[in-house]
């Protein structure tokens, strides 16, 4: 399953942030997004996940294939680690959570309520959710926030295993993951803002 | 879909889930009515059906701002929007879970509270029937209001202001069924109209709720 993005322009809060973004992501490939804060990495990932429409351009291959992980992990504090994972597995129509639990070493925390986990453990649980979705394209927004070096290695291993099985990953991150990944610097796609006095369209 | 329903019921039952808050609110409002009106059982019997319906409606309203806001805050709503489940079924399930944890308990406790307001004997049956038929509409309309205000800071008050006018038809026909039943009049017509409102909003509003949710998630 190839994700193809051609000539994409996206906006955040009504202002265009990126324009002319084009790339293709083939099976077994990882693409790392770089760019300064505010360039539109999160907006691009949310657009690819189908949470918001692009202004112009075409996205192919993102129907029912993308597993999205944003800044928030979508965990319920009163449910246990196991219940949280089971819930997402059932929503995505898969059964198995053991692989995900093992990959992020959550075995000792299985019956702990998610609310009692540390920030790094919560993030690990959030990333383990990607494994139970069974979706081929992972779209990850700053996945390594609050992870220690050991957990970053777990994450890199999980991504590598996913790529090995023919999946692909699109990761916005600033740290070196040690993955064999292409880099895409978004700095070159910054949208030119419309002139400030041109407000009649948005004001009426 | 079943997983989402079970999760919502579980969350409601666990610590901080708010199960029982609506019930307690209903109880207190009903107890306050005799205090404010005075110990005149004839007058209380007259206003009992309307008072009970208003109390149930406000109790339903009380728990609405948590309905989608919690899922929005922790990112669950974003993830559900990218899941294979269509948002229309997500909001339908959320409304069903809200009714099971708020509306249904109100229906079951209403006869006991009817005693406090000296509701006439023939009224109990019609009170329960009208609440049973009417409260699902309150949950579905409330979910629409919650979808409209999701992501807004201090959205709770705005939610009440938006939802209360939409509750008017349900309240009119629901209280009318209970009132007619209590005074021994024929109550089938308003009951059918009430059932029509519930069926109509349940069929149509999930589409509107999902549409506004999609806009709000952008």
Q: Which percent range fits the helix content of chain A?
A: 25-40%
The average pLDDT value of chain B, as a whole number, equals 91
Radius of gyration of chain A: 18 Å
Termini separation of chain B comes to 24 Å
| Helix count from the secondary structure assignment of chain B | 9
Give the low-confidence spans of chain B: none
Structural class computed from helices and strand pairing of chain B? mainly alpha
Query: Oligomeric form of this entry?
Result: heterodimer
The count of domains of chain B is 1
Strand content of chain B: under 5%
How many strand segments of chain B? 0
Largest sheet of chain A: 5 strands, parallel
Straight-line distance between termini of chain A: 43 Å
What is the string of SSEs of chain B from the N terminus onward?
HHHHHHHHH
Structure characterization notes:
The complex is a heterodimer of chains A (204) and B (218). Chain A has 204 residues and is α/β, with parallel strands linked by helices. Chain A has helices spanning 41-48, 81-91, 98-103, 119-133, 149-164, 200-203, and strands at residues 3-12, 15-25, 30-34, 56-60, 66-69, 137-141, 168-172, 182-185. Chain A is built from 6 helices and 8 strands. Chain A has a 5-stranded parallel β-sheet with strand order 5-6-7-3-8, sandwiched between helices. A 3-stranded antiparallel β-sheet of chain A has the order 2-1-4, with helices on one face. Chain B has 218 residues and is mostly helical. Chain B has 9 helices and no strands. Chain B has helices at 2-13, 21-37, 41-62, 69-73, 76-81, 87-116, 123-149, 155-182, 188-217. The chains are: A alpha/beta (204), B mainly alpha (218). Chains A and B meet through strand 5 and helix 2 of A and helix 1 and helix 5 of B.
């Amino acid at each position: 399953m190839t994700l193809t993005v051609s000539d994409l322009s996206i906006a955040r809060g009504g202002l265009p942030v990126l324009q002319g973004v084009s790339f293709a992501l083939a099976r077994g490939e990882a693409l790392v997004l770089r760019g300064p804060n505010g360039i539109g990495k999160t907006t691009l990932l949310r657009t690819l996940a189908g949470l918001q429409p692009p202004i112009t351009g075409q996205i192919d291959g993102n129907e029912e294939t993308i597993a999205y992980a944003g800044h928030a992990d979508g965990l319920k504090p009163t449910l246990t680690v196991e219940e949280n994972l089971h819930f997402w597995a059932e929503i995505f129509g898969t059964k198995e959570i053991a692989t995900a639990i093992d990959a992020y070493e959550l075995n000792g925390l299985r019956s702990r309520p998610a609310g009692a986990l540390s920030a790094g453990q919560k993030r690990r649980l959030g990333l383990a959710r990607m494994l139970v979705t069974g979706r081929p394209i992972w779209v990850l927004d700053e996945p390594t926030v609050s992870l220690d070096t050991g957990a970053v290695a777990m994450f890199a291993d999980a991504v590598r295993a996913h790529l090995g099985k023919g999946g692909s990953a699109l990761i916005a991150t600033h740290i070196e993951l040690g993955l064999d990944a292409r880099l895409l610097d978004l700095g070159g796609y910054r949208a030119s803002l419309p002139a400030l006095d041109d407000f009649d369209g948005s004001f009426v | 879909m079943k997983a989402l329903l079970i999760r919502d019921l579980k969350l409601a039952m666990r610590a901080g889930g708010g199960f029982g808050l609506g019930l307690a609110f209903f109880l207190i409002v009903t107890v306050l009515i005799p205090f404010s009106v005075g110990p005149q059982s004839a007058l209380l019997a007259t206003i009992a059906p309307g008072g009970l319906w208003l109390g149930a409606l406000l109790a339903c309203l009380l728990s609405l701002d948590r309905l989608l806001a919690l899922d929005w805050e922790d990112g669950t709503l974003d993830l559900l929007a990218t899941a294979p489940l269509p948002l229309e079924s997500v909001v339908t399930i959320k409304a069903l879970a809200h009714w099971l944890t708020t509306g249904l308990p109100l229906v079951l406790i209403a006869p006991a509270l009817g005693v406090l307001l000296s509701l006439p004997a023939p009224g109990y049956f019609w009170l329960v029937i009208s609440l049973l038929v009417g409260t699902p509409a309150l949950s579905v309309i409330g979910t629409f209001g919650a979808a409209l205000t999701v992501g807004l800071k201090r959205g709770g008050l705005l939610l009440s202001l938006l939802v209360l006018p939409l509750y008017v038809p349900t309240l009119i026909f629901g209280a009318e069924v209970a009132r007619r039943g209590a005074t021994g009049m024929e109550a089938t017509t308003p009951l059918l109209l009430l059932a029509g409102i519930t069926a109509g909003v349940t069929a149509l509003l999930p589409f509107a709720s999902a549409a506004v949710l999609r806009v709000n998630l952008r």
